[in-house]
Amino acid sequence: MRRQRIIVSILAGVLLAVFLLAGFLRQKYVVPVLMYHSINTEKNPYMARLIVSPQTFERQIRFLKNNRYNVLPLEEIATLLKEKKKIPPRTMAITFDDGYKDNYALAFPILKKYNLPATIFIIVNEVNGPDRLSWKEIRQMRDSGLVSFGSHCLGPEPLTNIKSEEDLRREIFASKKILEKNLGREVTTFSYPEGRFNDKIRGLVIAAGYEAAVATSPGRQYSDSDIFALKRLRISETSRNMFVFWIETSGFYTFIKERRDD
To answer: Considering Cα of 138, then 142, then 143, then 145, what sign does the dihedral take?
Structure first.
């Protein structure tokens, strides 16, 4: 009898520990928002952190598809967070910054092959540039229904470097209007250049009518559910190791990274 009571007590303790751990992990879960830039085969030391090879990118996308990740458009994730709805397991988003031409030539066919959505943030004044998307390519991706587009400002200068409010408004407001004119639809998402922003810039993004904005690593001072400071995970060629990629897409990597960086 005494032995049975001991076993029951141990099991109760284990169950309590499991429930406590599950509750702790739920609190630390952050919806993974992947941040890509260029998908190509070039070896460029100045862009090493921004380049993923097509082979690695397809391996990652195939991993998400085969493991039944719930890949949603960024706009849908922002709505779930805004409305405080339960986030389905393994929910995540794929984003690209800058609007490189290889997003159309190399990334887009892979997204179509596995039928996964993505959002591309465009530097408006660089459209039609030598290594940048053309309006024709942007509209073709738009028409697929898989790719949505957001603003990455008129130019690449971090907004925190711009002192004039008039210039800030131009970058935030005008880029939205130009994109909407060329896309023929509303643009609701924004990406802070180099991920840098402050409360004033955040307020202007809201005033411009965007419904969500992504940063890079804004830090623990911003809530994990702040839809105007969404935390993203920079994906580079180092993530060709699928164990590393699995950790990054687990939903707990942001929690680990923020404490590592403190």
So the answer is: positive
Helix, strand and coil content of the chain, in percent to the nearest 5, comes to: 50, 15, 35
Give the predicted TM-score (pTM) of the model: 0.88
91 beta partners: 70
Average pLDDT over residues 230-238: 92
Q: For residue 188, how many C-alpha atoms fall within 13 Å in the half-sphere facing its CB?
A: 13
Neighbouring CB atoms inside 10 A of 196's CB total: 15
User: Taking Cα atoms as reference points, which of 236, 248, 261, 262 lies closest to residue 30?
Assistant: 248
H or E stretch including 108? helix 108-114
Lowest mean pLDDT among 2-11, 38-47, 91-100, 144-153: 2-11
At residue 101, what are phi and psi to the nearest 5 degrees?
A: -60, -30
pLDDT at position 222: 80
Over the stretch 170-213, which tens digit does the pLDDT of each residue have?
Answer: 999 999 999 999 999 999 999 999 999 999 999 999 999 999 99
* CA 140/CA 180 separation, integer angstroms: 15
Residue appearing with tokens 């520990």: 17
**Which amino acid does the sequence have at 53?**
S
Work out the number of other CB atoms within 10 angstroms of the CB of residue 262. 7
Residue position matching structure tokens 């082979």: 55
List, as one string, the DSSP characters of 168-210. Answer: HHIIIIIHHHHHHHHHTS---EEE-GGG---HHHHHHHHHTT-
Alpha-carbon span 52 to 245, nearest angstrom: 12
In the chain, the DSSP E strands lie at 33-36, 38-39, 51-52, 70-71, 91-98, 118-122, 147-151, 189-191, 212-214, 233-234
